[in-house]
Amino acid sequence: MKLTALISLFAAASSVLAGTYTIPEDLPDGTYLFTLDADGNQITTLLNATNTDTATERERAYNWPAGTYTACPGGDGLKFSDFFDHAWNMFFNECYDSEVNLRYYTGALFSSYGTSKAYMCAWTPNICRPAEWAAAIDWMRNTCPGLSSNGFMETAFLQIPAWNKRYGYARNTASIC
Predict the structure, then answer these.
(1) Model confidence at 21, in pLDDT bands (50, 70, 90)?
(2) Going by C-beta distance under 8 Å and a sequence separation of 6 or more, which residues neighbour residue 117?
(3) Cα distance between residue 52 and residue 71, in whole Å
(4) Where is the signal peptide (predicted)?
């Protein structure tokens, strides 16, 4: 395949998510998948509304491909407890299921609880893996420690260009992909 064809294919895949998803203000807490239909209309699928139990297995190390980076976009912070006591676990548990069932996601997979959103953007079919999620959170928290006082935390994301995906956490009404 020619280099120009590969670049065009990557650009087309990348544009699928860029700025395409609108998160409704009144979206109830839960885990969702946003995708697009053939006409480019957003489809919202509720995957898991209330599972906030702590996952039992939390791997913390992962080898990231070259070019992976983290960013701290700033803006409104989110409540530490909303993220770590609820959204983190909801998202982790969805990833944990995918380890067993090898479910691939394309679109925006996210868990929303209170002020926070935990998410993965997949520009091509990707598995959400618990080890990746936990390691991504560790990297982001070490890189973006702002607003770590008064029970709030800074928003962040980990971009993984080689895998066409991003992990992150943000304010529940923030744009994510």
Answers:
(1) low
(2) 23, 78, 87, 110, 111, 169, 170, 171, 172, 174, 176
(3) 27
(4) 1-18
- What was the pLDDT predicted at 172? 82
Lookup result for tokens 């700033």: 74
Cβ burial of 109 (10 Å; 0-12, 13-18, 19+) is: buried
Torsions phi, psi for 81 (to 5 deg): -70, -35
Cα–Cα distance measured from residue 144 to residue 167, given in angstroms and rounded to the nearest whole number: 14
Q: What mean pLDDT is reported for the chain?
A: 76
Tell me the pLDDT tens digit for each residue of 82-97: 988 888 888 888 776 6
